[in-house]
Task: structure prediction
Amino acid sequence: MKENKYTVLAKCCICIGGAVGLVSNCLGIFYSPIAESLNLGIGRISVMATIISLASAFFMPVLTRLMKHIRINHLMAAGVIIDVIAYVIMSLVHDIRVYYLCSAFLGIGAVSYSNFPVSILLKEWYGDKNGSALGTALAFSGAFGALANPIVGRLIGSSGYESGMRVMAAFLLIVCLPCALTVRRNEQAVSEEKAAVSAGTAALSLGMLVFIIVTTSLFNAVNGMNSHMSSLAVKSGYSLEFSAIVVSVVMIANMLFKIAFGFAADRFSVTKAVLVWLAFNFTGLVTILFLRSVPAALLCGAALYAADFSNSTIAGPLIIQKVAKDRYSEIYPRVALFNTLSYALMTSGYGFLLDASGSYTLSLIVAISFAAIAFVLTLRLDRIIRNGTAAS
Result:
């Protein structure tokens, strides 16, 4: 079957679902069982997510160079295989040092078939108005997470977390690998981008680059709370099964918010969409902070919190496309490096704040502060982009 933008989108949806939905968004469901099994604190277990993020961040520039010499589908397929092997090893060996090492490989594998290559593919196939396509693809991280969390949570409760890891490995191998291996680039778009870069395009000013890095890194710092949603529910007195439902609500809302965000960004502007989504996110975090002892309020707050997934995953690429244009492949890894470092730092940071204070109250206050600062900076970013002062 000949490749077209719809088959590319479908394959990208599956790859995102595996790389982000299973590798990142489902990781939190393992925190409490692993911590109990190894008799360690949540903070030390959440370092796994930090390692995944750090490995992803530092491998991305390498991935950019590899894309110049190796077909993108081969790189994506290799990433899936790396994640499968890492999950299998983690299911067999009960040692935190091995988990840390495998987490590094999970990060390297996941970044090879997730946001960066997917955003490149969709930009090539859908052009400048690719927000709705990118939002749809990234929404599958929520869809897969929503489906996997209760299933894996129940499996962990009955058979242990090792069984959950093996199921994830099997899904990646059977479903994600064929999609990654068969996806193709739009060769015409690739040629046009090379010609545009060779002809020379306006460079992104250093000040603007730093501003974008700081703003988008705050989105990702807030998103670091995501991997703690399961243990937050447990710490609030709920069962592991209910905590899995909380995570599923986050994933479903994540999916809906991303789809809506993509259409809003194409219809209005990416910065205006970010401002509205930040308001949702802020409201959700405040609700969790003050009303998390009420089950319905916790679920509502978790759903609104999920708006940040759109900002941390879709907004960055669309903003960079807007200001960097044909140099997207060059600029994106630089911004993503800091974004991922921010996420990595705060993923474990929230865990250590929990261990130090005994509750998630301080972590939530920090996340709310980040969201408020991000709102102010996005207002400024919106004015800069509208005035056309991003380039120099």
Observations:
- Residues 5-387 form a domain with the Growth Hormone; Chain: A; fold (CATH 1.20.1250.20).
- The mean pLDDT is 89.
